Amino acid sequence: MSGHIVPVKIYVAVFFSLLILTGLTTFAAYIDMGMTHIGHFTIDWNTVVALAIAVTKMLLVVLFFMHVKYSPGLTRLVVVAGFFWLAIMVALTLSDELTRGWEGHPKAWSTLLPFLHF
Amino acid sequence: MSEHSAQMVHGHSPALVHQFETEDQQREAGSLGMWLFLATEVMFFGGVFMAYIVYRALHLPDFIQGSHMLDVKFGAANTAVLICSSLTMALAIHAAQTGKSKSTIITYLILTMILGAAFLGIKFTFEWTSDWREGLVPGFHFTYGGPYASGVQLFFCFYFFMTGLHALHMITGLGLLTTLTVMASRGRFRAEYFAPLENSGLYWHFVDIVWIFLFPLLYLIGGRFGGGH
Amino acid sequence: MSTAVADIHEVPAESRVNYLNASYGIKSWLFTTDHKRIALLYLASITFMFFIGGAAAVLMRIHLIEPQGALVQPETYNKLFSMHGVVMVFFFLVPSIPATLGNFLVPMMIGARDLAFPKLNLISWYIYITGAIFTLYAMISGGVDTGWTFYTPFSSLYSQTHVIATALGVFITGFSSILTGLNFIVTIHKMRAPGMTWFRLPLFIWAMYATSVIFILGTPVVAIAIFLVGLERIFHVGIFDPAVGGDPLLFQHLFWFYSHPAVYIMILPAMGVISELVTCFSKKRIFGYSIVAFSSMAIAIISFLVWGHHMFVTGQSVYAGLIFSALSFLVAIPSAIKVFNWTSTLYRGSISYEAPMLYALGFIGLFTMGGLTGLFLASLATDVHLNGTYFIVAHFHYIMVGGAVMGYLGGIHFWWPKITGRLYPDAWARFAALVVFVGFNLTFFPQFMLGYLGMPRRYAVYPDEFQVLNVMSSAGASILGVGYLIPLIYLVWSMRYGPAAGPNPWGARGLEWETPSPPPTENFEEIPVVTEEAYNYTGARQTAG
C-alpha cells in the first residue's frame, strides 16, 4: 500500500473471475445438489457451494481490490479480527438457538464424561 | 515556529496536518482508521446477518418460500453492476497512483457513480416497486396470505432491512464519490497523495462485499430447481 | 527541555500561554480540535449526566424506605430505575474515563501533539450531546419503563413509554464511543514518540487500547439490537414476537454481546488509572508490567465470550449455559492477576495517602469483593437463586461504583493539577474519599444480604422483613451523595482559588508530567525521545520487576 502499484491486468483478471463466479453461483442454484444428514445436523450442499463461492469472491476483492495482499500485518489483523468476532457471535448464539429443543438435561459430570454412569 | 516555516524546513506538502510528523505516518494512520471503521461495519451488518442466520435455521421452509418470490435476474444483474463498479474504483485509484491526468481519474470516478446509481435504480424501480405492487412490504403493504405467511413476512422484513441498510451505505458511498470527484477536478490528487481515494475505495469495496453475500443469502435460498426441499 | 521545566515553578499559571488561555470565547471551545479542550467538554457533560442519573437513584432509595413504597407509584418507580440505568451506563460510565482522562492523556502519555483525528474527536462529542438530548427529552416527556436492558417483547410490543426516543439517544451516542475507540487505536499504533516502544507505554495506555478494541467490535452490535427493537415497535413485523415466529431471546443475544464487554469498557480504564496511582504513591515500579499489559488485552478478548451468563434464567438452552458458565470463570482470571500485581507493587513500597491513593486502595478492596461475588453468578446453580435479586445489584455496583467510579475520581484528582494547573485542598479530598467509601459500603453491602435473602430487584414494594436492610441502604445512599458533592465543590473552587501546581506535584513518572501544568496547546515544545522504561521510580525501596 505504501507505493505498491497493482498492475491493471491483475485488476482485470480479478474482475472477470468475479463475474464468472457470479454466473456460477446463479447457475448452481438451479441444480439440486442434495443433502447429507449427520446425526442432529443436515448439510445442504447448495448452500455450502453458494457460501464457498461468496467467500472466494470476498477474498478476491479483499486481497486485490482492497490491496490486503500487499498490506502490512496490522491491516490483516484488523480484517481477520472483524470476521473472527462475527464468527464468535454467530457460533455462540447458535449454540443456544439450535440446542433449545435438545432432549434431556445435562447432569453435571455425565455431560462431559458420557461413558461414566452415575 | 510557524507552520509555514516548518514546511519550508522539512519540505512537507501542504496536505500534512499538524499532529503528524511525516506524510507516511499520516497516510498509514488514515488507512488504519478506515480499516477499523470497516471492522465496525462488519459487526454492524454482522448483527443483522446473525439474526437472519438464526431465523433461517429456525424457519427454513418459510425463508425458501420468501426467497422464491424474489427475481434472481435482478439480483444477479445488480451483483455484476457492483463488481464493475469495484473495478472502475480500483482503476481510479490506479490512475492517481500512476500519475495519470485528472480527467482520467474523474472519468473512472464518474463511471463508478453511474454504476452505483444503476444498482440503486434497478433495486428501487424494478424490485422494490414490484414488491410493493405485489403486497410484499411488511409494515406498509403486506397482503401475502399463502403458505408460511408469517414466516414469509419475517423473511421480507429481513430482505427490506438488509437491502435497505445496504442501499443507505451505497448512497453514502455516492456522496463520498461526489466529494472525491470535486477534489479531483481541483487537481488535489497526484502520485504522492491520493489517500482519500484509497480510503474511500476501501469503503466502496466493502459495500460490494456485503452485496456479494446478500445475493446468495436472499435470492438463492433453497435452490431454484423447482419444489424446494 | 529540563531548563524550561525548572523555570515554570516561578511563573503563575495565568501569565504563561497554555491550552486554557491560548484563545478565548465560546466559539474557541465549541469549535476546538484540541484533545485537551475536548476532554473538558466531555468532563462537563458527563458530570451533568452523572448527577441526573444520581438524582434518579436518590429518588429510588427514598422510595424504598417503606415496604409499600414511600414516594412514587410503581409505574414511576419502573421509569426511575430504567432512566438511572440508561443514563449511568451509556452516558456516564461508558464514556467516563475514556472521553475525559483518555482524551486528555493518551496523546500526552505517548509523546504526541494530538490524537490521530482531532476533528473526529470533536464530532464524537457533538454526537454524544445529540444522543443525550434525545434521551433527556424522553425523560422529560415521561421516561421509559423497560429497564436499561430494553428486553423484548415488552420493549418492542407492549411498553407504552418513550422507548424509541430513549433507544435513539443510546443508538446515536454509541457512535461517539466508536469514534473515540477508533481514534485511540490509530493514535497508539502510529503516533508514539521515538523510543516509546509498546512495552514502555504506561499501563493506562494499554488499558485504553484494550477498551478501544471493545468499543470497535462491540458497540455496532448493540446499535443493531436497538435498531431492530425500533423497527419492531414501528412496524410490528414479528422480529421478536413469538406469536409470529420471532425469538425474544435473539434480542438478548444481540444486546448482551455488547453489554457484557461494555462492563469491561467501564472497568478497564479504571484499572489503568489504578496502575498509575499505585506506582506513583508507592514510588515503585509496577510488579509484573507485561503481565498487567497482557491481562488487559486478555480481559478485552475473553469478555466477548461470556455474555450468555446474563441469560441463564431467561430461556437460554442449558447447553449454551454450560459453555458460557465455564468461559465466565475464565474471564475472572486476568482481573484477579491484576489485583495480585497491584498488591505486590504496594508491598515494600514507600506509600503515601493522598486522596488519589485512598481512591486506589478503595478500588482494590471493593473491586475484589465485587469480582468474587461474580463467581456466585457465573455458577449456573447459584445464579438460578440469585438472578433477578439485589445480589446482582450489589455485585455490579461494587464493581461499577466501588471500582469504576472510584477509579474515575482517583484519576480526576491525580491529574487535576495537570489539567487545570491548580492544586485542590488535599485534606478535604481525603475526607470526601472516606465519606464516599463509608457511604458506598453502607449503601450496597446490605444489598448483598437482601439479595441472598431473596428480595427481587426492580420491584417497587417488598416484604416487611426486608425494611431494616433497605433503610440502611438508603441511609448509606445519602452519605454517598454527600461524598460526591464535596469534590464538586472544592474542585470547582480550586480552579479559581487553588494554589498553582508545578509540572509534577506528585513526583510521578510519565511524559505528561514533563510538561508545564496546564500544558501548552501543542503539548510539547519538541517531541520527547524516550529512553527509560515506564514507572522508573528510583529509590531505596525499588525492587526489580
Write structural notes for this entry:
- The complex is a heterotrimer of chains A (118), B (229) and C (545).
- Chain A is mainly alpha-helical and 118 residues long.
- Helix content of chain A is 60%, strand content 7%.
- Helices cover 76% and strands 2% of the residues of chain B.
- In chain B, strand 1 (136-137) and strand 2 (141-142) form a beta hairpin.
- Chain B is elongated and about 65 Å long.
- The N and C termini of chain B lie far apart (74 Å).
- Chain C is mainly α.
- In chain C, helix 5 runs antiparallel to helix 9 and helix 9 runs parallel beside helix 11 (289-302).
- Chain C is globular and about 65 Å long.
In terms of topology, how is this protein built?
The complex is a heterotrimer of chains A (118), B (229) and C (545).
Chain A: H1 8-28, E1 35-38, E2 41-44, H2 45-65, H3 73-97, H4 109-112
Antiparallel strand pairs in A: 1-2
Helix pairs in contact in A: 1-2
Chain B: H1 3-10, H2 23-58, H3 60-68, H4 72-97, H5 102-133, E1 136-137, E2 141-142, H6 149-185, H7 195-219
Chain C: H1 2-8, H2 26-30, H3 35-63, H4 74-93, H5 96-110, H6 118-140, H7 154-158, H8 163-190, H9 203-235, H10 248-282, H11 289-302, H12 318-346, H13 355-378, H14 380-386, H15 390-420, H16 426-453, H17 467-497
Helix pairs in contact in C: 3-4, 3-5, 3-6, 3-17, 5-8, 5-9, 5-15, 6-8, 8-9, 9-10, 9-11, 10-12, 10-13, 10-15, 11-12, 12-13, 13-15, 13-16, 15-16, 16-17
